[in-house]
Amino acid sequence: MTSEFKWDWVVKATHWTVAGLFFTNFFITSPGSDTHELTGYIVIAAIVIRLLWGLVTTSPARLSRFAPSVPSAIEHLKEVLHEKRDSHVGHNPAGAIMIWAMWTLILGTAISGWSMETDMFWGVGWVEEVHETLANLTMLAVTIHVSAIIVMTKLVKKNYLKSMLP
């Protein structure tokens, strides 16, 4: 990623929509409220839009351009620590793992939340526990993600946040 790299408007819009609404549901809305549910549905829609965009775009946002790979992520982190550089355009290998993990966790949170409203799982305690656990794991992943952006910005002297701003 060069200092001039900017994500496209679809990536920025879906990123900030998911981030803002996840935080809204985690900290502000009342679980089970209409607002909480609607917010969750919008989060699902935003992720689906982003995933569909990743199938058709030719930009670094294309899903095939950042397939998760633990060996590649380890090699990348070694490079960052030893050489203090990140030459990737778009998601680097460590970032790719985190993005896929967050999408999976958020979609799992949304699906379990939706399931709690169905006749089959209404009032089933373990479904609520799964929902809460996935939401908490998502918050942990978000915390790691934001921390990694801060650390990487300092290590390689690139402003990663700038690429996600208008």
Q: Could you characterize what this model shows?
A:
By secondary structure, this protein is mainly α. It has one domain (9-106, 137-164). It has helices at 9-27, 34-56, 70-83, 93-115, 125-156. Helix 2 crosses helix 4 and helix 3 (70-83) crosses helix 4 (93-115). The two termini are 17 Å apart. It holds the Pfam family Ni_hydr_CYTB. InterPro entries: Cyt_b561_bac/Ni-Hgenase (IPR011577), Di-haem_cyt_TM (IPR016174), Hydrogenase_cytochrome (IPR051542). The chain crosses the membrane at residues 38-56, 94-114, 134-156.
Explain briefly what this protein structure is.
It is found in: Cell membrane. The chain is an all-alpha fold and about 170 residues long. The protein has five helices and no strands.
Provide a count of the helices. 5
Strand content: under 5%
The shape is: elongated
Structural class: mainly alpha
Helix-strand string? HHHHH
Distance from N terminus to C terminus (CA atoms, Å) equals 17 Å
InterPro entries: Cyt_b561_bac/Ni-Hgenase, Di-haem_cyt_TM, Hydrogenase_cytochrome
Transmembrane segments: 38-56, 94-114, 134-156
Protein name: Cytochrome B
Subcellular location: Cell membrane
Which structural traits does this protein have?
mainly alpha, 0% strand, single chain, 166 residues
